[in-house]
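# step 3/5: fold
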Amino acid sequence: MLKREFPFINPDFKKKKMKFSHGKKPYFKKIMKISDFNVWLVDGNYIRGKICEDFVNMGQPALFKFIPKNEFWIAKEANSGEENFYAHHLLIENRLMKKGMSYDKAWLIAASAEKRERMKSKLSKKLQKIKSDKKIVSNNIHKKILEKIGELRIWLVNGEAVRDKFRIDFAGGGHDKVYSFIPRNEIWIDDDLSNNERKFIIIHELKERKLMSKGRKYYDAHYVATELEDIARKKPSKVKRIMKNLS
């Protein structure tokens, strides 16, 4: 199996060639305080492009070492009413990791707590009343088709509804080869993402799905897809050519 550091940190950032401070990127504004932590709204697109591709919706310093020790970060594009869920998740995850628990175990416990809180939301209660998953997908998750490639459909979806109903770790995008709740021949793109960010995630999902369709394991396929995504981010002029090769 191919091995890749997680979370992946930009080598230039590791060498301290890149620095950031409040009032500059990636910071937007402080949105709350929870326990001893200041919760900051940050530019997720900038972080994925310049610092760490593995940062999606949120992060805390026990996992992402570049985040200051008294801060939690939530991506601006993920700030759609879910910030309280994220902040409490991060607090639990951080406390457990500081006690020596692995990220995977800490995440599961924090995710369980987040799920309980999400079930109290207005959207979640609405979804709980709908018994058919197919109806939820067609009426509450699907928003519009972004691309058609043969039988494959790339959908813009309601990310919050996906997290409330199916998987709270859905972030950025996903496809039918990874998530059983995604219909056959579909790729889903989270509506939290900006228009400019979507193309990079689409490239990632297309490459990952293509490799998994040929029998590659998820982690191997994810690694290769992340490398291709990184190329696209560094050289946007190649995006059209990459998309054409993946079609």
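# step 4/5: annotate
The two ends are 26 Å apart (CA to CA).
# step 5/5: archive (pending)
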